[in-house]
Design brief:
Layout: E1 8-9, E2 13-19, H1 23-28, E3 42-49, E4 55-64, E5 67-73, H2 77-85, E6 94-97, E7 103-107, E8 117-120, E9 123-127, E10 131-135, H3 149-159, H4 196-204, E11 210-218, E12 227-228, E13 231-238, E14 243-251, E15 258-260, E16 263-268
Antiparallel strand pairs: 1-7, 2-5, 2-6, 3-4, 4-5, 7-10, 8-9, 9-10, 11-14, 11-16, 12-13, 13-14, 15-16
Amino acid sequence: MNESNTFAPLNFLRAVRFAGDDAATFLQGQLTADTLALPSSRWVRAAYCSLKGRVIASMLLGRSNDAYIAILCADIADDFATRLARFVLRAKVKITVFPSGCVTVAKNTNKVDSGTMKTEEEAQFFNDDGWLLRVTENEEPVTAVDLSTDSSWQQEQIFRGIPWVGREASELFIPQHINFELLDGVNFKKGCYVGQEIIARLHYLGKIKRRGYVVSGEGAPPPVGEKINGGEVVNAADDGKGGFVVFISAPCAAAESWEWGDLHLQLLPVPYSLQE
């Protein structure tokens, strides 16, 4: 680990831990990821969906020994934990929501494979193509905080076509409508989980008519949920140059020309193929 990395709070995110003998099997029936096959010290993308197959929350999910750490939007972390706690019943699972400030980020100068978790005492690290995420159980004082770090990280996630579903976008989209299976966020071979029937039916029998797109424009960013080209904004951020960049789920037929009010928006490429 490069000690020169300076970590700053990533206030956009929080962490939830699932510990106990039944944590793996419990999460297997709740999330789109295959938790039973997740090796220790690895991270994957996952989603928690409604019975109708709509994404309630998206996340990074990592395993450290027998515990699982979910990193997700801060504004939905408590609700996510409360929802899942209702289904624990007699299972041996303890759910802990970490305080704000426990997820920090630094520009990564030590390249390792993306998706690798490195555990050092109570810290779990995720290398995210130029960024290093760190999760600690207790909030730590951080010096030399750059207040633009949170916005810069969100901006880069959007440029890379990675959606983060929080409170305002919750239950609006099926995973395929935000490209989540293209990001390996859905395992279609793992068996049953909440919303699996609808998600699998679209994958095997349906034609995907909506996708996630990245577009940019001038001025202040639109709010999450704003309708553009018959779609809805999932994430939005300043681009640092007087404009904005957004990840939006919209009909494929509307992807050629983008307008928002009087603004003409520019469609940007994502680093993966949108083809089925």
